[in-house]
């Protein structure tokens, strides 16, 4: 599912790059990525009980994932340019993911929340959105 979200963002946006990552804290404390680079990270999964007591095992799992993107502008001490660029980038990501169905048997992807960080210094801010969909676990 993470791979599908990355492919969707690469195909439907003008982001500089879209990559997979595992640790949001490591992203914000390491080498700062290029402007408008996004990362897709796994977040949380909640499984529902299987509705079948015998035979086929089928379980629906709520999947939450994060999309973090970086805005870098060195010529913007107050941050108003970063805010404008944030809004445009956020809108592009939302346009690509909101209502998209990554698998025909799963729920549509929906936005849960967005969190803006304080500046990370050196003209860089990170913004993180949480998304929700489902996946299915089945035994054969």
TrEMBL record:
It holds the Pfam family Phage_tail_terminator. This is DUF3168 domain-containing protein. It comes from Rhizobium lusitanum.
